[in-house]
Amino acid sequence: MYMLQIQEALQNAGYFPGSLDNIAGPQTLAAIKAFQADHNLEADGMVGPMTHQALFQDTNPVPSQPGQLTPHFNRQEFKCCCERRYCNGFPNEMHPDLLNHLESVRQNLNTPIIVTSGVRCPTRNQEVGGIPNSKHLIGYAVDCYAPGLSIEALVEAAQRENLGVILYQNEGFCHLEI
Ligand SMILES: [Zn+2]
């Protein structure tokens, strides 16, 4: 069980776990204890079988497929596009905050979003003309489009999520970053 999924379940259940950062920090711990207290469970801050069951029975389905990072996005969608020429595909992982914002955009628009570039190794970044300190290198940026929508509509939805946006109008995609 990933802490991120627990944090998402807490949030879905109305408990504030702090930022969705996949780390069991003080706010996440407090949210677990509050949830346990409200559900007549021992408020020890540990997600044992009873707490796990209570936490996940009434919330949204939890991603369960291998590599499923959010309900609509799989890790494989974000791998470096060098096709393993210069790296193993993941010189870095995507940042959970970016994934959560992207998932929110996806859910608000209710239409698929295609990722054209997620994380990049430095060599591939240079090859595709990325700036040297591109946020793609550290998993803080994604290039994408929504086949069922104008790129402007996708940009608007991303801006409502407070994502940084660069619109590549002629190319038909946008760059989103945290
Ligand atoms: Zn690469």
The CA-CA distance between the termini, in Å, is 26 Å
CATH architecture of the largest domain: 2-Layer Sandwich
The domain tally reads: 2
Largest sheet: 4 strands, antiparallel
- Mean of residue pLDDT? 91
Low-confidence stretches: none
CATH topology tier name of the largest domain: Muramoyl-pentapeptide Carboxypeptidase, domain 2
- Residues in helices, as a percent range: 25-40%
Q: Helix segment count?
A: 6
Strand order of the largest sheet: 3-4-6-5
User: What's the shape?
Assistant: elongated
Write down the Rg.
18 Å
| Overall strand count | 6
Q: Give the ligands present.
A: zinc ion
Portion in beta strands: 5-15%
CATH class category of the largest domain? Alpha Beta
- What is the ordering of alpha helices and beta strands? HHHEEHEHEHEE
Class per helix and strand makeup: alpha+beta
Can you characterise this structure?
The chain is α+β, with helices and mostly antiparallel strands. It folds into two domains: 55 residues, Muramoyl-pentapeptide Carboxypeptidase, domain 1 (Orthogonal Bundle), CATH 1.10.101.10; 110 residues, 2-Layer Sandwich (Muramoyl-pentapeptide Carboxypeptidase, domain 2). It contains six helices and six strands. The strands form two sheets. Strands 3-4-6-5 form a four-stranded antiparallel sheet, with helices on one face. A two-stranded antiparallel sheet has the order 1-2. A hairpin with a 4-residue loop joins β5 and β6. The longest helix is centred in the middle third of the chain and has 14 residues. The two termini are 26 Å apart. The relative contact order is 0.11. The mean pLDDT is 91. It binds zinc ion. The site of zinc ion has 6 residues, from loops.
